[in-house]
Write a structure and sequence with these properties.
This protein is of the alpha/beta class. It has helices at 12-23, 47-62, 81-84, 95-106, 120-130, 152-155, 157-169, 186-190, 201-214, 235-243; strands at residues 2-7, 31-36, 70-73, 92-94, 110-113, 136-140, 175-178, 198-199. The chain is globular and about 55 Å long.
Length: 258
């Protein structure tokens, strides 16, 4: 089985950090590779940046052929993940959705811990999109900023632990998602500092990608009723819009062949 990690951020160091976190728990029969966005932003922190990153995600996934069994969109907020499911036959898992569903099975109420308060509005949108507002305890992030996203874990270590305590004592969370590429791997490091279960979104997405692939989630392709030419798109992405839809419901049909 081969799983692809797609980083919609342009930072290769964040890609490497997330891949290292995933490799710590990768099953023996699974191989892993990663791709980094060729354009966009070094890290995504608001809705506008996420919209740009979503288009780039679709382009990166358009280049993946039959050797991919599942793909992980590795930016909290899952830019482009849902749209990619309309174009690709293999499972596409967003780290935010994977983390929230995993957290909801580990406790009654989950909190989200991030490295920057700038993410709060966008991350709350993610909770709404997944439909788990009633299970959401709240968002926490340190008041101070790190020197850079690459040094967030080192610069904010003590402040992040304080936020974890606030998640439990003030917000009433009984599980916490440690969100955002700069914090990949921090859940494992901080596990001994709290009694709360901590969810690493990349690791949650990895295990769900493996499970979905083993459940034979690959979908057969079906011809579209309305193959649509485009103007100015990446050639491989444009070809997908002409070639077909990966499942019969993509055009709103109840079932059967279009």
């Amino acid at each position: 089985m081969h799983i692809l990690i797609v980083n919609p951020n342009t930072s290769t160091s964040l890609t490497e950090r997330m891949e290292r976190a995933a490799r710590c728990q990768i099953p023996a029969d699974v191989t892993l590779s990663s791709r980094t966005a060729p354009r966009g932003f070094p890290y995504i922190s608001n809705r506008a940046e996420a919209q740009v990153a979503g288009s780039v995600t679709l382009e990166m996934l358009a280049r993946q052929g039959t050797g991919t069994d599942a793909a992980i969109v590795a930016a909290f907020g899952d830019p482009g993940a849902r749209a990619a499911r309309d174009l690709r036959p293999f499972p596409v898992i967003g780290v935010a959705e994977a983390a929230m569903h995993s957290a909801a099975m580990l406790g009654e109420r989950f909190g989200i811990l991030a490295f920057s308060r700038q993410m709060q509005g966008w991350y709350r949108d993610c909770v709404h999109q997944v439909g788990l507002e009633r299970r959401f305890a709240g968002f926490r992030a340190p008041a101070v900023a790190p020197r850079s996203p690459d040094t967030a874990q080192e610069d904010l270590h003590d402040a992040l632990l304080d936020c974890l305590r606030d998640c439990q004592d003030r917000d009433g969370a009984d599980v916490v998602i440690v969100a955002g590429a700069p914090l990949a791997g921090f859940a494992t490091l901080a596990a001994g500092e709290t009694r709360l279960p901590l969810v690493d979104p990349v690791i949650a997405a990895l295990h769900q990608a493996v499970a979905l692939s083993r459940l034979a989630a690959r979908r057969g392709r079906h011809e579209r009723d309305d193959p649509k030419p485009s103007t100015g798109l990446d050639p491989e992405l444009a070809a997908l819009f002409l070639a077909g839809s990966p499942h019969p419901r993509a055009n709103g049909r109840a079932g059967g062949n279009p």
